[in-house]
């Protein structure tokens, strides 16, 4: 199987849409979606459903190969990956299964929303983990000198990736090891500012599917015209879609279609 990044990205995004893992306000939920970042969105990408879908094995194998090859080709220094809870974990496992890059996973930390909150609460967090068996901030083995890439399904504002980097460095410190974590690899970048945040924090963001510049165009023939035009415009300027009157207009359009 040759590595054609754009072709693989196009095939995967279309499969995800067909399997109902790219939801829109128009066909799935007239009220739209409030993201973790508190931003309202007319679409939602839900890869937590991946393992239960009809074509799960096919899609996971394609994603594992495509993302794993992207990492090997574009960031060859990476020796280990860390999948993020929840959807990043099966993707990291798929990468390991298809191209052989060893994987670990970062444990979910309830209530931690920002990198600075992790550092403020880290002693309490580590104490709680130890009270529930041999739980770790990052599950899996590190090697001294590892170059680690964080793996996740998608990125919007980058906060969870910075928390994961902090977990990785703290876990390596506990093991008296030195590692570097300077790269994040995602299946889908919504292209809403994460790349700029990554660079400002000394990291590099890599994506298989840049959704605003390419992914949405690859879905044009699968969408209704209003659906496609709204998503395209939202990706250009999300701020005007936070207006309640705009959201209500879209809600009515979806409900009218349903009737």
Core attributes:
two-stranded antiparallel ribbon, 259 residues, 6-stranded mixed beta sheet, alpha/beta
Please render the helix and strand layout as text:
Blueprint lengths: L4 H14 L3 E3 L8 E2 L5 E2 L1 E3 L10 H19 L5 E5 L3 H12 L3 E4 L8 H16 L7 E2 L7 E9 L3 H16 L5 E10 L4 H7 L3 E7 H8 L6 H12 L7 H15 L1
Parallel strand pairs: 5-6, 5-8, 8-9, 9-10
Antiparallel strand pairs: 1-4, 2-3, 6-7
Helix pairs in contact: 1-2, 2-3, 4-5
Biggest pleated-sheet summary:
6 strands, mixed
Low-pLDDT stretches are: none
Level of helix content? 40-55%
| Number of DSSP strand runs | 10
Q: Strand pairing plus helix content: what structural class?
A: alpha/beta
Distance between the termini: 46 Å
Q: Any idea what the radius of gyration is?
A: 19 Å
> What is the N-to-C succession of helices and strands?
HEEEEHEHEHEEHEHEHHH
Shape: globular
How much beta, percentage-wise?
15-25%
Instruction: Output the number of helix runs.
Output: 9
User: Could you report the average pLDDT, rounded to the nearest whole number?
Assistant: 94
Q: Which sequence of strands runs across the widest sheet?
A: 7-6-5-8-9-10
């Amino acid at each position: 199987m040759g590595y054609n990044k754009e072709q693989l990205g196009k095939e995967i995004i279309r499969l995800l849409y067909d399997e109902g893992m790219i939801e829109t306000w128009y066909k799935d939920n007239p009220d739209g979606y409030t993201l973790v970042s508190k931003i309202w969105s007319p679409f939602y990408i839900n890869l937590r459903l991946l393992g239960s879908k009809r074509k799960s094995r096919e899609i996971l194998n394609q994603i594992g190969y495509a993302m794993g090859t992207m990492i090997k080709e574009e960031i060859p220094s990476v020796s280990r990956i860390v999948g993020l809870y929840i959807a990043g974990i099966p993707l990291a496992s798929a990468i390991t299964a298809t191209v052989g890059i060893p994987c670990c996973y970062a444990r979910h930390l309830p209530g931690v929303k920002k990198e600075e909150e992790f550092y403020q609460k880290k002693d309490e967090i580590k104490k709680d983990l130890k009270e529930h068996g041999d739980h770790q901030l990052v599950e899996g083995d590190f090697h001294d000198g590892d170059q680690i890439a964080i793996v996740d399904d998608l990125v919007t504002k980058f906060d969870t990736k910075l928390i994961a980097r902090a977990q990785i460095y703290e876990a390596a410190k506990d093991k008296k090891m030195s590692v570097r974590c300077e790269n994040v690899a995602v299946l889908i970048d919504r292209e809403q500012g994460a790349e700029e945040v990554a660079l400002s924090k000394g990291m590099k963001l890599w994506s298989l599917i840049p959704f605003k510049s390419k992914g949405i165009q690859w879905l044009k023939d699968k969408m209704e015209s209003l659906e496609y035009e709204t998503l395209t415009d939202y990706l250009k300027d999300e701020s005007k879609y936070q207006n309640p009157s705009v959201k209500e207009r879209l809600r009515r359009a979806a409900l009218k279609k349903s009737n």
